[in-house]
Amino acid sequence: MDSKKPSVPDKKLAAVCGLFCPSCTVYIGNHKDPGRLEAMSRRIGQPLDKLQCNGCRSDKRSYYCENICKMYKCAAEKGIDFCGECGEYPCADLKSFQAEMPHRLELWKSQERIKEAGYEKWFEEMDRHYSCPSCGTINSAYDMACWKCGTAPGCNFVSEHKEETIRMMASKK
């Protein structure tokens, strides 16, 4: 299990839609916190092997990313690296995707930052944005407290979007 952060920005962990793969709860479960992945498997009714993921551009993507997400295949067909490079950006599929879940709240901001500064700089910024202010562990948008040390909030994303995340998740129940 990989317990270290990537030492350099890794493009396979920079999703075409603008998500930062290391902050994905599925990715964290695969690489750092297997108990999280087991709980998720039970909760959503998918076997563990369907939740294996090494990032958006990797050869092993979770069931959702491989079979339901439209952005990766679309970007590959158009020969672009990120949705923000597309002449149709933001398309209806991306708008719908962005509005569905709280961890996608910053997609537009991410696409603009990638275009402005490059994915490498954006990647470094996202690493800090999702890292625990106390121990440096990368947390997901749903980790209200750091999953490793318990510091609250678990990261800047949670600090900025906690209320909206809670509200959106409550409406899904």
**What structural category do the secondary elements indicate?**
mainly alpha
The share of residues in helices is 40-55%
What shape does the CA trace take? globular
Give Rg in angstroms.
15 Å
End-to-end Cα distance, whole Å, is 33 Å
Beta-strand residue percentage: under 5%
What's the β-strand tally?
0
How do the helices and strands follow one another from N- to C-terminus? Answer: HHHHHHHH
Uncertain parts: none
Number of domains: 1
Main sheet record? none
> Please, how many helices?
8
- Overall pLDDT level: 94
What does this structure look like?
- The chain has 173 residues and is an all-alpha fold.
- The chain has one domain.
- 46% of the residues lie in helices and 0% in strands.
- The chain is built from eight helices and no strands.
- The protein is globular, with a radius of gyration of 15 Å.
- It starts with 24 loop residues before the first helix and ends with a helix.
